Amino acid sequence: MPIDAALCTKIWYRYAWARDNGHAQFVEKADKCEAFFRGDQWDKADKTKLRLQRRPALTINKIISTMANVMGEQIYNRNEIAFRPRSGSPAETADVLTKVFKQISDNNQLDWKRSDMFADGIITSRGFLDVRIGFNDSLQGEVVIENLNPKNVIVDPDGEQYDPDTWNEVFTTKWVTADDIAVLYNKEDADLLRNREQSFFPYGYDSIQSTRDRFGDRFNPMYNGTYDESSVMRNIRLIERQYRTLDKQKHFVDPTTGDMRAIPADFDRNRIAWFVEKFGFKVVPKMVHRIKWVVIADNVVLHDDWSPYKHFTVVPFFPFFRHGTTIGLVENLIGPQELLNKVSSQELHVVNTTANSGWKAKAGALVNMSAEELEQRGAETGLVVEVNGDPDKDLVKIQPNQVPQGLDRISYKAEEHLKGISGVSDSMQGQDRADVAAKAIQAKRQAGSTNFVKPLDSLTRSDFILARNILDLIQTFYTEERVLTITKDKLTGEEETFTINGMSPDGTVVNDLMLGEYDTVTSSVPQRETLEDSQFDQAVALKELGVAIPDETLIENSRLIGKREIIKKMNAAANSPEAQAQRALAMRGQQAEVAKTEAEAAGKQADAGLKHAKARKEGVLAEKEAATPPEDNGAQAQAMKVQADIALDEKKFQHEMSMEERKMQFEFGLRQMEAQQNARLREQDAAVQRAVAVKQANQPNPQPSNPKETA
């Protein structure tokens, strides 16, 4: 686009007003918080003054370890996004939308970018992601998610709510080269801006050069190199302004559900008529707030058109948000950190002055050194000073001041302030005493995690905004047929391929993502590594208790390298003929063991029957003896005794025969299984020998390398 000084001036002055009314104060706070996080915690003037006074300036950075603990809590607890149908939308399409979001997440490495956004938020109090459609990897366009430097995002100064849908405007800015402008926009505008060293605006001190974050020096000086080398210098500020303005726009309306969708600007009359005829929609004009998108570089307009998106591309994260005020975790730790540094430096200074408190010497009393040398070497170990006169009177060491009481307690209090304000206790850092019980440590860690609930809840809120915006992008731009692939199981590498917006043979659209309304469901789950550790410990504990946990479950939840190959080898070994024979042998052994147990039980039952019969016999004999008249001489009792003996011998014989039969069956079964196993082993040995013989027969005869061997 040509130079448009009027429009660029309008955008620039609005940008400068938003920058100087709130954003500049945020940048100042963010710079200080980032400096303390990386360990740059002393004012340059104070540090120079202390160095001139030969006093130490210690930096004991407790903030970075404290924030690392908070970042670890976020990394170990990820959020999973899913979609739920609403207003009669098909549940199958909601499942497909969840898979599409997973594909977008994996394609953009969203987990790492969310962690970077979270780190920006807890350090500077603001973190941002940018979500838009990109065409670098696909002509059809795909969702692209990028991290934004929070110092380069200027929020609406009049905004007072968390959700960007309530803001009226947002600025994003970045430094680019002239070649970047040629690729993103056009070569003519790039040539106008190439090697430009001064801003068009009278107070545009950061239009061409400014302080910014980068690998090199933080001040971007004016470049005086050659023309070609200037193409790699990112010294042109690109300003993007997205703001809302009223406009009348046509909408599709579903008469059944009342669902209303804006008609894209690139839809012509024929395409609109096709949707009306196909789905029975009605077209209704409506006055709405639309997003205008303007991009400028100095006084050159690079883009000026309606935004193709329903939402701003910016997704914010604020750890603590109070009516337009953003609060991070580092800013409240600056005071205790400064106190710790200054008190520790003062303690070291006191110790140094105690070791070298100074001397009192009579003029001309020093023999082997001058007063200046004594000043430099007065604290050396084993120093020998020759004195012309009485050494106890002519050379006296000055008694140092006593260390102020309570000085060490101040540094201890400073560390306790850091723990109390951040909520990161010794238990959460793994620094509890050795005598503290494990259950007490676990309880303290769970209680300490409560301090991070609000920042993590704000992150969940940002995830909801992100998923909502991506859902709108999918339903607006993923309109043609696409074949997508996701990793269904990271352990085995199993992939799943599915089609969206595909046309079936009967003319219906399969997995039509354009229609329907869906809710976003955000759930927090532990990171896979943490979840695996927990699942592995629980599985081992259950198996030790006797629960039949499969070995594959233990391996899946372990931290072994090459788990997939181990499981495949286990399955292959389990299906081999040897394993099947071993299982059959073990099964027969178990059956034989059961038969043996049953036989023993039957034997015990028979013994009990014999004892019972014997007891009855003795009882009958006693009764007969008591009832037999004297003249019988015991003949009848003798007959009954003989009958009882015969019955007892018969039962004993039957019991012995039953035991002998069971023993023969058991031995026969064992011999049969042993014979089958030996036959299989002989067949396998024969097969191996045949394979070796075939391999040797196919190999050529080796030629001896030593002539003597031939002879």
Task: Give your account of this protein's structure.
With 711 residues, this protein is an alpha+beta fold. Among the domains are: 358-398, no CATH class; 577-697. It contains 20 helices and 19 strands. Strands 4, 5, 6, 7, 8 and 9 form a six-stranded antiparallel beta sheet that branches. A hairpin with a 2-residue loop joins strand 8 (282-297) and strand 9 (300-306). Helix 3 (63-75) runs antiparallel to helix 5 (110-124) and helix 6 packs antiparallel against helix 7. The chain starts with a helix and ends with a helix.
What ranges have pLDDT less than 50 throughout 5 or more consecutive residues? Answer: 701-711
- What would you call the quaternary organization? single chain
- The portion of residues assigned to helices is 40-55%
| Rg estimate, integer Å | 44 Å
Name the shape in a single word.
flat
> What is the overall number of helices?
20
Query: Termini distance?
Result: 92 Å
Largest sheet composition: 6 strands, antiparallel
Average pLDDT value?
Answer: 79
Please report which band the strand proportion falls in: under 5%, 5-15%, 15-25%, 25-35%, 35-45% or over 45%: 15-25%
Computed structural class: alpha+beta
Summary, kept brief:
This protein is α+β, with helices and mostly antiparallel strands and 711 residues long. The protein has helices at residues 5-38, 44-52, 63-75, 91-107, 110-124, 178-184, 187-193, 269-279, 334-355, 371-377, 391-394, 407-422, 438-449, 453-477, 528-544, 551-556, 563-574, 577-627, 635-698, 707-710; strands spanning 77-86, 127-134, 142-148, 153-155, 169-176, 236-253, 260-262, 282-297, 300-306, 314-317, 320-322, 325-327, 359-361, 395-397, 482-489, 494-500, 502-503, 509-510, 517-526.
